[in-house]
NADH:flavin oxidoreductase/NADH oxidase N-terminal domain-containing protein (Caenorhabditis elegans), 445 residues
Amino acid sequence: MPHQRLVADCVDIKPLTEHIHFRNGRVALNRLMKSPMSEKIYNWEDPNETKRGVPNSGLVHLYEKWGFGGFGIVFTGNLVIDPRHPYEAGQGIVSKENDTPVMRDWYAKMARAMKANHALAIAQLNHPGAWAFTEYTDGSGKKHIISDGALDILNAPKSVVKSELIDRVVYAAKLLSNCGFDGIEINTAFGNLFCQFLLNNNKRTDEYGGAVLVTRTQFHIDLYNAIRREVPAASGFLIGLKLNSADYQNTFTNDEVGRLCEIFDETGYDFVELTGGQMEQCVEEAQQRASTIARENYFLQFIETAARSMRKTVVYITGGWQTASAMVNAVKLNVTQGIGFARAAAGEPDLPRKLLSGVAHSTLDNKFSPADYFTSKHAAHFQMKTMAARSINDVVRSTDGVPDFTDEEEASHFAQKAGEYMKFVAADGKPDTFAEVIKYTPLHS
């Protein structure tokens, strides 16, 4: 079936081909990034902590596709730093508990696949905090107990914060550096544990909390410095953060957002990935700067403030990119330096190559409803699983076998099956505790 694209104007894409230079000397070959995205492909069939969350050949096959896709930088999905506190069953884990020569070898293979065409390979690290679950169900339907409960770090002593968070991130960063990764991104978004330190409801009474913003950022300052003692900036290893504007909406003033970003910049973070809104709409509004226009788009205000506040920290924005013209305009308007794709890259791993060569001017026009978050999420999981089934050496195109959801019949059929699947996993507990991807037979090969 022919892939259909969103209607878009032709545009000079030269700004997207420009290199991005990071403060520690590393260079991304273009402005396009494959953003972090849950894969649910890691080993979770074996409940043993030494084997759970370890990569496999499927992950290597998947990241080969993105590695050759033309991205300047490629991110992994969430890699949790503590096997007792996972965010989603099927995700990767990097910790002292599962650190074995076999695990390191698989992560090294992943890094090589990501860098196959000279992209930078970045691993995203996360701790879900209160979002963690205590048990999961494997692909055969068997339940496994993980822990007794979530880690309430915001009420824990500073020594626990150091041992359970800072030390674990440092351990993971050093391990991944040794495996060939070019950097890490600390997921400080969506209300997870790293995000909670920054928010106004952090009531800690030590230097990691309270009413003063500077105090609430001290954890991220100490975390950065601890990583740099083990993996110095001179090594070229990048350290970045992910921020979601929705975490600060209605609680942070514009000045507070600016000061937060200034602190990250002053601390030394190499990049920040921002998310939380639809960029096509934001770019249109950013082009209309007349004072008579009401500026009620919080996400636009957030990203513009961040861009002004960061002098050395590179800004990437992920979320809702559809057309090359919007991407180019965002760069020209200094709204962002880099463009991140998530689900658009699940169905089209070589999207950057097509955009930068002028073959395509927009993303694919998938026929799922924009409001149907979970259907498109499961569709991306299935597309990634399909790409993971075969090495890039065994396919003609990187999209071979991947279902075309721009075909209305295919999209409708998948949406029906996804609805049945979501009822199934909901009956078993939280959707994220099922360590398997939806089973689906495409109508068209």
Summary: Residues 158-178 form the longest helix (21 residues). The domain at 14-433 is CATH 3.20.20.70 (TIM Barrel). The two ends are 8 Å apart (CA to CA).
